[in-house]
Design goal:
The protein has 644 residues and is α+β, with helices and mostly antiparallel strands. It has twelve helices and 36 strands. It has four domains: 239 residues, Orthogonal Bundle (Neutral Protease, domain 2); 187 residues, tricorn interacting facor f3 domain (Immunoglobulin-like); 87 residues, Immunoglobulin-like; 83 residues, Sandwich (Immunoglobulin-like), CATH 2.60.40.3080. Bound molecules: zinc ion.
Length: 644
């Protein structure tokens, strides 16, 4: 999902940092509710609830009226026990909903409903791996937790209902299995509502049948789907379609748009951009994952977007928003995070792929994306991309960490591996049959990056993913003849990381030339030397922003001319001896060498760095012109002198 605006507050910036929630009272109560709800979920998991059966199929029959905040439903479930002695089926279900009855083989059976868990007692043991089914009848007013779960309101005076379950809100409006272990293999949804409305849904539209003053709309999906990606939206939508030719799959796939009548013109002029976006994602990764069904957009009233499988719900139609939600169909829907600790597998990827559309189609925005994303990531100098507290919904959806820093980690991996190996790794990750249409941990992504590239990335993930903060670099350099000397230092914004390893690019320019050196930086204070075929005048640290870093001290770089002006020789011309005066005490001298012009070293002196004034002995040096090369911490300085 991407959240651009918040309902509750109007002062937050709109860019990616807006995902960070504000700690005002109304929000705190939501967070508290989420924490309690999440703890209940943990309790359930701890005793094996929800993990002891494989959910095969749901038939969801819902009745809603967008003018009324209420839902009535019947959920038929096919399941297979994965343990012996299976006698109870558990669903996540809000205590605010009421289970009217549960029918098993046509007969009512007993239930308990508390702590947001519906426990259904089967009359006899269902054997391991034997498919069975039951149906839950329920109704109620869904509570408003998380990002809304189930919203009823209006747009331009027309009533609307939409759902947004991520992360823990599916159970607020239907009895579901909302852990991140077992996807629903197959799903049919029937929504009955008053005539005059359209119903947005997952998968393929099967039928839309009028029955008196009501209608029933049937959607089906035959791709596995996580409970939080199941959604409906009901209002007086108008619809239109675009079509796309995919690399493989059907000749022409529908892109179905359900938009508010008042926004039709804006939508029709904006959404066709998604055709180029899908083509780009197809070419960089693999074919759109739900090509046998559809892709689409349904407009909703939330200030952002949500990647409901095969039909993203969007609060607007900007390229950034629709590209982000579309990328989730690969990263989030096809391969879904296996833990909320790993939300970057959804949000870091969607944010980065949204940016790749800028790089490809709006290159004028690309550098700015890197700058603003770096700046946003640095708003959390003591945070990690790995989510350390999954009881906090604002922490899971931290804009600066899960979105900005997460996306920049991908940008850095692309830099380390190169385009070809990076994107091939992603293809292998998406095609892994243990992950596709299932769930993945960060370790799964790391394994594919390592296997494809041959690089060991354990330090990268330890430092950049689990570690907190970001580095700041200090570069000092000098040049003697064609030999560059570069000292590269690093400090960190958080003490949890002693050092961030990265290949560090520095660009040197001068005499009409430029060259970029990539330094394999493995410790702070590391000294690099390299030959340049021109005299460098300027150095630029990471000019293309490959590395997440900030507060870099590029100003300490001195040109040879500027450094040389801080040394003076006297007397000059000289005979017998000469004084070398260093006027910059912060740049101590370590050695001095005398060269002929042209020629080799004639005499050298090791000197104490603490001494600003050094006397050198010129006895026995023939009359003539020479060069004095003074080695300092910032590089070499060359001064001309005459011996008489
Ligand atoms: Zn997202």
């Amino acid at each position: 999902m991407i959240k651009k605006l918040l309902f509750f507050f109007s002062l937050l910036p709109v860019f990616l940092s807006a995902q960070q929630e504000s700690p005002e009272t109304v929000q705190c109560s939501l967070i508290e509710a989420e924490m309690k709800a999440h703890m209940a979920l943990h309790q359930a998991a701890s005793v094996g609830f929800l993990n002891d059966y494989n959910l095969i199929y749901h038939r969801c029959e819902w009745s809603v009226d967008p003018a009324v905040n209420f839902i009535q439903g019947a959920i038929t479930s096919y399941f297979k026990p994965t343990v012996n002695g299976f006698t109870q089926v558990h669903f996540d279900m809000s205590d605010s909903l009421r289970a009217d009855s549960v029918l098993y083989h046509g007969m009512p059976i007993t239930i308990q409903h508390s702590n947001n868990i519906l426990c259904i007692n089967l009359p006899a043991v269902v054997p391991l791996n034997q498919t069975d089914s039951l149906c839950v009848y329920y109704h109620g007013v869904p509570p408003a937790t998380g990002f809304g779960s189930f919203y009823q309101g209006t747009h331009a005076g027309a009533p609307v209902i939409w759902t947004l379950s991520e992360p823990y809100g599916a159970r607020d409006w239907w009895p579901s299995k909302q852990n991140l272990i077992d996807k629903i293999d197959s799903l049919d949804v029937f929504v009955t509502c008053p005539l005059g409305n359209l119903v947005a849904g997952n998968g393929t539209l099967v039928s839309d049948i009028t029955n008196g003053s009501n209608k029933t709309v049937h959607w089906k999906t035959r791709y596995p789907i996580a409970a939080y990606l199941v959604a409906i939206a009901v209002t007086n939508y108008v619809s239109y379609s675009n079509y796309i030719h995919l690399n493989s799959g059907p000749d022409s796939m529908q892109i179905l748009n359900y938009v508010y009548p008042e926004d039709l013109a804006l939508a029709q002029s904006s959404t066709p951009q998604i055709i180029k976006t899908i083509a780009l994602y197809d070419s960089l990764t693999i074919t759109y994952p739900f090509s046998r069904e559809k892709y689409g957009h349904a407009e909703f009233g939330w200030g952002g977007g949500m990647e409901h499988q095969t039909m993203s719900y969007v609060g607007g139609f900007s390229n950034v928003l629709i590209s982000h939600e579309c990328a989730h169909q690969w990263f989030g829907d096809r391969v879904t995070l296996a833990s909320w600790h790993d939300i970057w597998l959804n949000e870091g990827f969607a944010t980065y792929f949204e940016a790749l559309t800028e790089e490809r189609y709006f290159p004028q925005n690309w550098l700015n994306w890197k700058k603003s994303t770096t700046t946003d990531a640095m708003n959390s100098p003591n945070g990690s991309v790995w989510v350390d507290d999954t009881t906090s919904v604002p922490r899971i959806f931290s804009g600066s960490l899960s979105y900005s820093k997460g996306s920049y980690l991908l940008h850095m991996l692309r830099w380390k591996l190169g385009d070809q190996l990076f994107f091939r790794s992603l293809q292998n990750y998406l095609n892994d049959t243990t992950l596709a249409y299932r769930y993945a941990h960060t370790s799964d992504l790391q394994r594919h990056l390592e296997n494809t590239s041959g690089q060991n990335l354990s330090n990268f993930f330890t430092q950049w993913f689990y570690g907190k903060g970001f580095p700041s670099y200090q570069v000092t350099w000098g040049q003697t003849g064609h030999t560059l000397s570069i000292t590269l230092g690093q400090t960190q914004s958080d003490p949890s990381v002693a050092f961030f390893e990265m290949p560090v690019p520095i660009e040197f320019t001068g005499e009409g030339h430029d060259t970029t050196l990539v330094l394999n930086h493995t410790y702070s204070g590391q000294v690099f030397t390299a030959n340049l075929n021109f005299i460098a005048e300027y150095a630029f640290f990471d000019p293309d922003l490959h590395i997440l870093s900030g507060n870099n001290k590029v100003q300490t770089i001195q040109s040879p001319g500027a450094m040389a002006s801080l040394f003076s020789l006297y007397p000059n011309p000289a005979s017998g001896s000469m004084q070398v005066l260093n006027m910059n005490p912060s740049n101590p001298v370590s050695s001095i060498e005398l060269y002929g012009i042209p020629g080799n070293v004639i005499r050298s002196w090791q000197v104490s760095g603490n001494q600003n004034l050094n006397s050198i002995d010129l006895t026995g040096i023939a009359c003539g012109l020479y060069e004095l090369r003074i080695k300092t911490d910032l590089g070499f300085v060359v001064k001309k002198l005459e011996v008489k």
